[in-house]
Specification:
The protein is an alpha+beta fold. It has one domain: Mannose-Binding Protein A, subunit A (Mannose-Binding Protein A, Chain A). It has 3 helices and 9 strands, in the order αββββααβββββ. The strands form 3 sheets. The chain has a 4-stranded antiparallel beta sheet, with no helix packed on it. A 3-stranded antiparallel beta sheet has the order 5-6-7. β1 and β2 form a beta hairpin. The longest helix has 19 residues. It is globular and about 40 Å long. The termini are far apart.
Length: 152
């Protein structure tokens, strides 16, 4: 029974972080080579979305991406991807000056709820909300590289 309680505690903690920690992109810089630098978080983003894929194919796509002379791309975690949400915007809830081709839809993250390994977290760039769905569904992908400097 203790294992179930621990998983529930992690799930609740994750929901609190995702819901109440307001981290958003700061000063974005278009590096003109298909990448966007977020100077606030230290993350470097793929400028164009990578199409719709299942969660596992999204992981592989990002790991194999070569863009802007970088080969260390990955699928962002829930906090990283949510940092792109701009609550002053709607449909899509992201700065389209820097991400012009964004679909106002669901984008995968690498984060998986601890008690549901068959699910993964996503960010909706239609509403800015987060949730999780089965990894077998196909949703959009935007890769990232670097580390999240805000929490270091």
């Amino acid at each position: 029974m203790r294992v179930g309680i621990d998983k529930l505690a992690y799930l609740i903690l994750g929901m609190i972080l995702v819901t109440f920690v307001d981290v958003h992109a700061g000063e974005l810089i278009d590096k003109r080579n298909s990448i966007i630098l977020d100077q606030t978080t230290g993350l470097i983003w793929q400028k164009t979305e990578g199409g719709k894929r299942t969660w596992e194919k999204a992981i592989v796509y990002c790991e194999n991406l070569v863009l802007g002379n970088y080969e260390d791309w990955r699928l962002p975690n829930i906090i990283e991807l949510r940092s792109l949400v701009d609550r002053s915007k709607h449909n899509p809830t992201i700065d389209t000056a820097y991400f012009p081709d964004v679909a106002p839809s669901i984008y995968w993250t690498s984060s998986t709820p601890p008690s549901h390994n068959e699910y993964a977290w996503f960010v909706s760039f239609y509403t800015g909300n987060v949730n999780n769905y089965s990894k077998s569904y196909s949703y959009y992908v935007r890769c990232v590289r670097g580390s999240f400097e805000k929490f270091k």
